[in-house]
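Table S2 (text version). Query chain:
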Amino acid sequence: MTDIDLTPILGPAGAAIYIALGLIALYGMFCVILLVRRIAQKQFANDAAAGQFLDEVSKQVKQKNFDAVTEMCDTPAYWSKAVPQLILLALTNRKFGPAKLRRMLGEAFERDVLSDLEYRTSWVATVVKSAPMLGLLGTVIGMINAFAKIGAAQESGLDPKLLAEDISLALFTTALGLTVAIPLVLAGNMISVRIGKLQDSVQQYLGRFVDDLSEATAESGGPPS
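Corresponding structure-token output:
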């Protein structure tokens, strides 16, 4: 029976795994950076900035000056932020009662903001799962090469040093896969915490706005609370 030489196949396959690990590591980092920036864009810089914005909005709402609130929210400084854009939606639908308005705003936030963040987060999770699997595949390919050399040792002779080098390189791919995955696991947890804080802050700020809007519309003969 003729032995099959797998070196022409396994050699390029090993190189392809290194390239794939590098590419998914870069994509994972790209997703993390993009998520951090998106979350920062959607929220206020700090509680003081949010409080100042909401105080001005509350003042105008209590005066029933809804056009001024619309103009303030529809400015470049607030185009990318979640709360001002949801306030615009609330003003457009202020004829509804507070319960329906809160539900509408929650659905809009889930659809327009959280869905995009969760989509990107799912790709980070995919990279975290794929990197160790690619590393393990590289280890398997390297071990196949090593065992192939052991099988041919009786005919050609085998230097143990070369075999050790093959095994070392094979195990290195697993280590490389874990090196890619572990930082992304930590980054993914950090992003989940930030998304949770974004949700909490949006709910808090919108709750305050809806209360003020409900009082203003009730005083002007709007829908009862």
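Notes on Table S2: The CA atoms of residues 68 and 158 lie 83 Å apart. The chain has one domain: 7-218.
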